[in-house]
Design goal:
single chain; 7-stranded parallel beta sheet; about 50% helix; globular
C-alpha cells in the first residue's frame, strides 16, 4: 500500500550536497517535514532555507555520522522538534580512489567509518523510535557498487557491500514488525560533487563512469521508497545489468570491469594526491550536481552509446585472457 509522505518527518544525512540535497528538496516539495544533517553548518542552512521556500518545515542539525553520539543527538533533535521520525535516509558518503595497498591507512579507514559505520549509527539511532512507534522506513543509499567492485575503489566498495549485509541482518531482526522497513537504493553513477570531493591517491585526474544519472532521479526513488517500501531498487540500467552479469559470470565480468573502469575513469592528466573531503568538508561544490552530465538529451544518448561501445570492446580481450592456460 502506497503511503503519502505529506507531514511525515524525514531525516536525511549527507544533505549538504548531491543526492542528499536533492532528496531534501524532493521530500520538502511533497509536504514532508525535513531534518537535514551533514558536517557543514553553512551548507545545511542553505538547504533548510530552500526547503522552507518550498513550503516545508525544515531543521538543520550539523552532524558527523562517524560520531554515534552525534547521530543519536540528531535523532533526539528530530523528535524534540517534530515529535517522531517516519523516514530515516542514510546517505552520507565519501569516496577514495587508490589501490588498496597504496592508500594511506587512516584515509582508507575513514571511508569505512563514514560510509559503513555512519549507516550503522543511523540505523541504531532510528530503530528505537521506529520500534516504539511500530512503524518507520529506513532507506540506505547504497550504490550499484554494493553489488560488484572496481579497481582503485576498494574502500568505497567494501563499505557498500557491508551496507547490504547490514540491511539483510536488520530485515531479519525486524521480521516480527511488518510496518518497519529497511530499503536499499542502488543507483549507478550520479552527477554529484562526490567526484570533486573524492580522495585521490592514483596520481591521475578522475571522472565518473558514463553515463551519469540525474540526482533528482535518485531523490525521486528515495521518495518512492518512503511511500512504497521495497527491499532493493536499482536506479539506472547500468547497475542492474552489470550486477546480473557479475552474478552469472563473475570471472569474466571482473576482467571486463577492470579494463572498462580504468579506461573510463582516469583522464590523461596528472592530479596531486589529496584526501578530498574525507576528513573535513570542503567549501566548494555544495550544490546538487557536479556538472558531469551531458548538456542535452542527444549528447546524453551519445555518451551512453560510447560507453556501451567501449564496454563491448573490452569483452573479447577479457574472454581471451580468461581462456589462456594458467
Amino acid at each position: 500500500m502506497r503511503k503519502c509522505v505529506r507531514d511525515s518527518v524525514v531525516v536525511i544525512t549527507g544533505a549538504s550536497s548531491g543526492i542528499g540535497r536533492a532528496a531534501a528538496l524532493a521530500f520538502a516539495r511533497r509536504g514532508a517535514r525535513v531534518v537535514v544533517a551533514a558536517r557543514s553548518a553553512s551548507a545545511l542552512e542553505e538547504v533548510a532555507a530552500e526547503c522552507a521556500s518550498a513550503g516545508a518545515r525544515a531543521l538543520a542539525v550539523p552532524t558527523d555520522v562517524r560520531d554515534e553520539c552525534a547521530v543519536r543527538a540528531l535523532a533526539r533533535a528530530a523528535v524534540e522538534v517534530f515529535g517522531r521520525i517516519d523516514v530515516w535516509v542514510n546517505n552520507a558518503a565519501v569516496f577514495l580512489y587508490a589501490r588498496a595497498d597504496e592508500a594511506p591507512y587512516e584515509t582508507y579507514r575513514q571511508v569505512i567509518e563514514t560510509n559503513l559505520l555512519g549507516y550503522v549509527h543511523g540505523a541504531r539511532a532510528a530503530l528505537p523510535y521506529f520500534r516504539a512507534q511500530g512503524a518507520g522506513v529506513l532507506v540506505n543509499n547504497v550504490s550499484a557498487l554494493g553489488k560488484f567492485g572496481g579497481p582503485t575503489m576498494s574502500a568505497y566498495v567494501s563499505s557498500k557491500f557491508g551496507i547490504l549485509g547490514l540491511a539483510s541482518c536488520l530485515r531479519q531482526e525486524l521480521v516480527g514488525t511488518p510496518d518497519i522497513h529497511v530499503c536499499s537504493l542502488l543507483p549507478a553513477a550520479v552527477d554529484t560533487p562526490i567526484y570533486q570531493h573524492a580522495g585521490n591517491y592514483t596520481g591521475r585526474a578522475v571522472q565518473p563512469i558514463q553515463p551519469v544519472l540525474d540526482p533528482e532521479r535518485v531523490a525521486a526513488a528515495m521518495v518512492s521508497l518512503a511511500e512504497r517500501p521495497r527491499r532493493e531498487v536499482y536506479v539506472g540500467a547500468g547497475g542492474r545489468v552489470t550486477a546480473a552479469a557479475y552474478a552469472a559470470f563473475p570471472g569474466l565480468t571482473e576482467r571486463v570491469l577492470a579494463a572498462y573502469i580504468t579506461s573510463s575513469t582516469f583522464l590523461d592528466r596528472a592530479a596531486p594526491h589529496t584526501d578530498g573531503n574525507i576528513f573535513s568538508p570542503m567549501k566548494r561544490w555544495t550544490g546538487v550536481t557536479g556538472g558531469w552530465r551531458a548538456a542535452s538529451r542527444l549528447a546524453a544518448l551519445l555518451d551512453t552509446a560510447r560507453a556501451a561501445a567501449r564496454l563491448a570492446l573490452e569483452i573479447p580481450s577479457a574472454a581471451l585472457e580468461r581462456l589462456k592456460p594458467r
